[in-house]
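pasting for ref
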Amino acid sequence: MASFTPSAVVFLGLAVGEIREYFQTPRSKSTPQSDETRLLSSPNPGRIWTYLTATAGFGAVAIISFLFGFSALTVFLGSLAVISLLLLSRQIAFLSQQAEASPRQIMSLLRQAKETTEAEIKTVVTAKNPQFEDAPMIEPQSFKTYSAYLSKGDLLTVEAGADDWIRVEFVSLTESAKLEAGKKYDWKRGKEGKNLTVEYEAERNGNWNIYIFNLAKTPLEVGVTLTVEA
């Protein structure tokens, strides 16, 4: 039975740490923790095996000590088994909360990504706002998107220049949906090179996306100017 003394000391240390962490964790009904904060502050799931083993071990030894008539040792080990069982329940509860929070985190990230995408392709040039300049850094084999609203007869001019090859495309919203889905699509105007000037006269009223593709194997800073002439 004496061999269980070091294990009991280690277990008590873990238990004291859990209790201290529990009472030191801020709690406020008016400012509940977010999913991310709760997941970061939750105990280590690996402790479940520690408490599971401790509960079984202390329980088994408590039964044996009871059979041999060691009442004081039985009470001591039985108490440790109960504490271990309570801490095990707490760990399982935290894991349940984590499993519930993960889908919410994913949905939150998807909403943020959608909002970011919508912000990036918002209309930047129209007849009322006829010019826009930018100099984005575009990653290899990636692209930057701009948007323009054109009335029939409006002339859209895009000037784009970089130190390596790029491609400029004018694509309608209908065809843009196919492009974003990785499907075959058509463009109204397309041109490749290092310093490009691409023009398009609108055949109808509508929205158009302008894609600037980096065809190089390294990131490129691309100077872009969009102009609309009514």
